[in-house]
Amino acid sequence: MNWIYLIIAGLFEVVWASMMKLSHGFTKLNFTILTIIGMIISFVLLAKATKTLPLSIAYPIWTGIGALGSILVGFFIFGDKVSPITWIFITLLLISIIGIKFTTSS
Q1: Eight-state DSSP code of residue 64
Q2: How far is it, in rounded angstroms, from Cα 52 to Cα 72?
Q3: Pick from 100, 79, 88, 103: which is nearest to 7 by CA?
Q4: For the chain, what is the domain count?
Q5: Which coarse location class describes where this protein primarily resides (predicted)?
Q6: First to last CA, the chain
Q7: Is the whole-model pTM more than 0.85?
Q8: CA max distance for the chain
Q9: Of 8, 35, 84, 106, which is most buried with the most CB atoms under 10 A?
């Protein structure tokens, strides 16, 4: 269950980052509230995951999911430009997250 908490926490990191962009510097109240809610859910689930997972495993995976998800949301939803070389590094990040997961004993 701790891995499920961690994955969902990472996904909510993407949610709050996306809502923060849509809040336009916290000037739009509805997106500002969604940002805060996303942050709370993300942090609470990360805290639950770190009850049993080592911080050295949980935190990099949490941030990695958030980073990858934010890149994909930026590219597909916000129209961010991503260079071909950047996609190589994004792929390496994904491989690293998977590698951390499969090489940990928890």
Answers
A1: H
A2: 29
A3: 100
A4: 1
A5: membrane
A6: 11
A7: yes
A8: 45
A9: 35
Cα dist. 84→38, 67, 89, 90, 99 in Å? Answer: 31, 17, 9, 10, 23
Residue type, 8: I
- pLDDT of the chain, 106 residues: tens digit per residue: 999 999 999 999 999 999 999 999 999 999 999 999 999 999 999 999 999 999 999 999 999 999 999 999 999 999 999 999 999 999 999 999 999 888 887 5
Give me the DSSP letters along 5-41: HHHHHHHHHHHHHHHHHHTTTTTSHHHHHHHHHHHHH
Query: Which two structure tokens, joined as six digits, stand for 48?
Result: 């639950």
